[in-house]
Specification:
Structural class: alpha+beta
Shape: globular
Largest sheet: 7 strands, mixed
Number of strands: 18
CATH superfamily of the largest domain: FAD/NAD(P)-binding domain
CATH topology of the largest domain: FAD/NAD(P)-binding domain
Bound molecules: flavin-adenine dinucleotide
CATH class of the largest domain: Alpha Beta
Strand content: 15-25%
Order of helices and strands: EHEHEHEEHEEEEHEHEEHEHEEEEEHHH
Helix content: 25-40%
Number of domains: 2
Number of helices: 11
Radius of gyration: 21 Å
Length: 414
C-alpha cells in the first residue's frame, strides 16, 4: 500500500553525517525525516565499531590535542568524550584521535534527534525517486511492510553509497580499486596491560605462524583499535582479504570471510600468545566495515592535490585535518601527509549535486576522488560536512540565499 507524506527535508542514512545533517536541518522549524536501513543509528561508528574519531584535532606534534573543528562537530565530540570517559590520544606523526564507547555514540545520536524533533524511520530503505526538471519531487521508501512516498523540498544523501543518485540512474564516482574492508571484534581476559607491548607480542607470534606456514599470510592484518585495551579487554581490527568490488554477493563474501578470520585469529592467539591464554571472544561488531563507497558528482570534485597542498576555498564549509589514509589489500596502512600545523578545506561544491539542484551529499558520500575521500571520510570531517549539507538543504527548502547560509556556516565551523 502507498502512503503519501510530506517532509521538507529528507535525510538518507543515520551515520555521523546523517545525524549532523538532521540536527542542522531541523534547527529552524523545517520538518525533517531521517531514514536508516539498520535498526540503530550511528552508521560505521556503531555498526562497524571503528572505535576512534579522527579529524577533530589539529595535525600537530604538540602533545596537547587542540580542536580544529568548531560548532556541532565539537559539541558532539565533547559530549561523546564525556559519556565515554575518554580523552584524545596522539602518535609520533602528530595525529590526534578520540577513542569512544560504541554505546555512547548511539545514545548521543538518539538524544540529538529526539531533542530536535526529527522523525526517524529505522529499518527503512529508499526504493525509488521521481525527478522533474532536475529537482527531486518524491522519494519512495520501504518501511514496516509498506511503501511511503515522501514529497520533499530537499534531500541529503548520507548513505555512504550514493543511493539517491543510483535511484535516479545518475552516473556515480566509482573507483577501479576500493580500500580493504575490516572487521572489529573484542577479546576479554587479556593479561598484558601495555597496549604497545601487546601489539608487538601479538604481531611477533602471528608472523612466526605465517613463516611456519601454520596460518595464512593475511593473518598479519591484525591491529589493536588504539586506546581500547582496558581491564583485560581489547578490540582488534582485522583487514579482510576479500577485495571490495560491489559486485553481486561481494558484501556477503566479505562478511563470511570476516567471521572465519575472527575465529581463526582468536584461536591462534589463545594457543600461541601467553597474554591471550585465558581470553575469549566477548563481542563481534554487527558488520564488517567497508571504508569507501560510490560518490555523487558535485559542482566541485575534491582532489588529492587539494588535500596535500592544504587548499583553502572561498566557499569552504569544513576543515580537513587528516592525511590520505589508504588501506589496500596487499599492504598495511599507507599515509600521504600534508604539512604539519596546517589543514585543507572542503568547499560547499563537494556537497551540492551537479545534476540535481535539491540534492546534497555529506560524509563519505561527498564529491571527491579516491585519494581525497581517503582523508575526508573520517568522522571529524563527516560531522562537519553533515552539518553543512543539512544547513544547505534547509536554505534550499526555506528559500534562504546560498551566500547567507555559507557565511553562517563559515562563522560557525571554520
Ligand atoms: C574499518 C573502518 C575503520 C575506520 N576507522 C576510523 C577511525 O578510526 N576514525 C574515523 O574517524 N573514521 C574511521 N573510519 C571511517 C568512518 O567510520 C566512516 O567513513 C564514517 O563513519 C562515515 O560516516 P557517514 O555518516 O558518512 O556514513 P556511514 O557511517 O556509513 O552511515 C551511512 C548510513 O546510511 C545507511 N544506509 C545506507 N544505505 C541506505 C539506504 N538505502 N536507506 C537507508 N539507509 C541507508 C547505513 O545503514 C548507514 O547507517 C573507518 C571506517 C572503517 C570501515
Amino acid at each position: 500500500m502507498n502512503e503519501i507524506k510530506h517532509t521538507d527535508i529528507l535525510i538518507v542514512g543515520g551515520g555521523s553525517a546523517g545525524v549532523a545533517a538532521a540536527v542542522a536541518a531541523s534547527s529552524r522549524g523545517q520538518h525533517v525525516t531521517l531514514l536508516e536501513r539498520n535498526s540503530f543509528l550511528g552508521g560505521k561508528a556503531t555498526a562497524a565499531e571503528v572505535g576512534t574519531i579522527c579529524g577533530l584535532y589539529e595535525y600537530s606534534r604538540n602533545p596537547a590535542s587542540t580542536y580544529i573543528v568548531k560548532g556541532f562537530a565539537r559539541e558532539f565530540a565533547e559530549r561523546l568524550k564525556e559519556r565515554s570517559g575518554s580523552c584524545p590520544l596522539n602518535n609520533n606523526e602528530g595525529l590526534h584521535y578520540l577513542p569512544y564507547q560504541v554505546e555512547a555514540f548511539g545514545e548521543i545520536c538518539n538524544e540529538y534527534l529526539a531533542q530536535k524533533g526529527v522523525t526517524v524511520l529505522l529499518n527503512a530503505t529508499v526504493e525509488n525517486i521521481t525527478i522533474r526538471s532536475g529537482i527531486i519531487e518524491t522519494v519512495s521508501v520501504a518501511y514496516d511492510n509498506s511503501n511511503i512516498i515522501f514529497q520533499v523540498k530537499a534531500v541529503v544523501d548520507c548513505s555512504g553509497d550514493s543511493v539517491i543518485s543510483k535511484a535516479a540512474n545518475m552516473s556515480v564516482i566509482k573507483d577501479t580499486q576500493y580500500q580493504a574492508a575490516a572487521q572489529v571484534f573484542s577479546m576479554q581476559g587479556v593479561t598484558e596491560e601495555n597496549e604497545a607491548r601487546l601489539g608487538m607480542i601479538m604481531m611477533k607470534a602471528l608472523r612466526a605462524g605465517i613463516e611456519a606456514n601454520e596460518i595464512p599470510a593475511y593473518y598479519d592484518r591484525v591491529y589493536i583499535v588504539q586506546g581500547s585495551l582496558k581491564n583485560g579487554h581489547v578490540n582488534l581490527k582485522l583487514g579482510i582479504p576479500v577485495p571490495v568490488t560491489y559486485e553481486k554477493g561481494n558484501v556477503e563474501e566479505i562478511q563470511r570471510m570476516a567471521s572465519e578470520f575472527v575465529q581463526g585469529v582468536s584461536d591462534y592467539l589463545i594457543q600461541h600468545v601467553a597474554a591471550y591464554k585465558n581470553a575469549v571472544i566477548s563481542h563481534i561488531a554487527p558488520e564488517a566495515g567497508i571504508r569507501i563507497g560510490e560518490r555523487t558528482m558535485g559542482t566541485y570534485l575534491l582532489t588529492e592535490d587539494d588535500v596535500l597542498n592544504c587548499r583553502k576555498f572561498p566557499d569552504a564549509i569544513a576543515n580537513g585535518s587528516w592525511p590520505v589514509e589508504i588501506w589496500e589489500q596487499d599492504r598495511r596502512v599507507k599515509m600521504h601527509y600534508f604539512a604539519l600545523d596546517n589543514c585543507y578545506q572542503v568547499p560547499a561544491g563537494c556537497l551540492q549535486a551537479a545534476a540535481i539542484s535539491n540534492l546534497y551529499m555529506a560524509g563519505r558520500n561527498i564529491s571527491a576522488t579516491r585519494m581525497a575521500i581517503a582523508s575526508a571520510r573520517v568522522m571529524g570531517i563527516c560531522l562537519q560536512t553533515g552539518f553543512a549539507a543539512g544547513c544547505m538543504a534547509f536554505a534550499k527548502a526555506a528559500g534562504v540565499p546560498r551566500e547567507d547560509i555559507l557565511e553562517y556556516l563559515q562563522n560557525l565551523q571554520l
